[in-house]
Design brief:
Layout: E1 6-7, E2 13-15, H1 22-34, H2 37-46, E3 56-60, H3 65-76, E4 80-84, H4 93-102, E5 105-107, H5 114-125, E6 135-138, H6 142-160, H7 172-185, H8 191-198, E7 201-204, H9 207-215, E8 218-222, H10 226-237, E9 241-245, H11 249-257, E10 261-262, H12 265-270
Parallel strand pairs: 2-5, 3-4, 3-6, 4-5, 6-7, 8-9, 9-10
Antiparallel strand pairs: 1-2
Helix pairs in contact: 1-3, 1-4, 2-3, 3-4, 5-7, 6-7, 6-8
Length: 271
């Protein structure tokens, strides 16, 4: 797949279907602003203080005219934004063109193939060598999934040298995800780890994405005695991230030596 990132005259990256539609997109964005007074009020009230100054935001959300108003609200509040669509058919090409020309990095067009879709997702997450976004605005969990799977693959690669095997799954779309991660590992084996370290959080829109997050949600295990040890192992095998709280220093040390994160209850609930 020979896709190449393009750049505006100001150096902003993008990949859209037709930049000549940008003027049409701008007209419709101006109309939509009238129908979205909440976001416009945010610009008026908070724009001068620039609360998002220095923040990096990646969006994986339908690249429509209404989303364009959201993107330009984020940039008006100081954020840097990179965006892709969360659906291969949901992009409005004139909206994508207008935003790419005027406001933010956009990688989206209507009628993407699945390979193109995941290429766009990867580009939206790629902020260069010093990490990824501070926040993901996700719709369906695909951007979040790519980081999680990337980190998992990088940890395995560092430990054993093993790379993801796309043939290990029958899911055609997940094969694409594993291929993207596999191909990037040798060039940059810490790419997604750096993203994880910078990322503050995810704003997830849909039940699909929330269900994915529930599958990865945290477990706080109070006590690492005989029962706690068995529960910790079982929960870890079920895919949960396990955090142990333990009053006994010997049991806490045992949990730590077994590879579990150990926190006090106060530190855990602050999270």
């Amino acid at each position: 797949m020979a896709l190449q990132v393009e750049k505006t005259t100001t150096g902003r990256e993008y990949k859209v279907k037709d930049m000549s539609q940008a003027d049409f997109g701008r007209l419709e964005i101006e109309l939509a602003e009238v129908e979205m007074p909440g976001l416009m009020s945010c610009r008026t009230e908070f724009g001068p203080s620039q609360p998002f100054k220095g923040a990096r935001i990646t969006g994986s959300l339908h690249m429509t005219i209404q989303t364009a108003v959201l993107i330009e609200t984020l940039t008006a509040l100081g954020a840097e934004v990179r965006w892709c669509s969360c659906n291969i058919f949901s992009t409005q090409d004139h909206a994508a063109a207008a935003i790419a020309r005027d406001s933010a990095a956009v990688f989206a067009w209507k009628g993407e193939t699945l390979q193109e879709y995941w290429w766009c997702t990867e580009r939206a997450l790629d902020w260069g060598p010093d990490g990824g976004p501070d926040l993901i605005v996700d719709d369906g969990g695909d951007a979040t999934l790519l980081i999680h799977e990337g980190v998992k693959a990088e940890e395995e690669y560092e430990k054993s040298g093993k790379v993801p095997d796309p043939s290990s799954t029958d899911n055609a779309e997940f094969q694409i995800v594993l291929t993207i991660i596999r191909d990037g590992l040798k060039a940059d084996p810490k790419k997604y780890t750096r993203m994880k370290e910078r990322l503050v959080g995810v704003s997830e829109e849909t039940t699909t994405g929330v269900k994915r997050l529930y599958q990865m949600q945290l477990v706080s295990l109070c006590g690492y005695g005989d029962v706690g040890k068995g529960c910790a192992v079982a929960l870890k095998q079920a895919g949960a991230r396990v955090i142990v709280t333990e009053i006994d220093p010997i049991c806490a040390l045992q949990a730590l030596m077994e590879g579990f994160q150990v926190l006090t209850s106060r530190m855990w609930f602050r999270r």
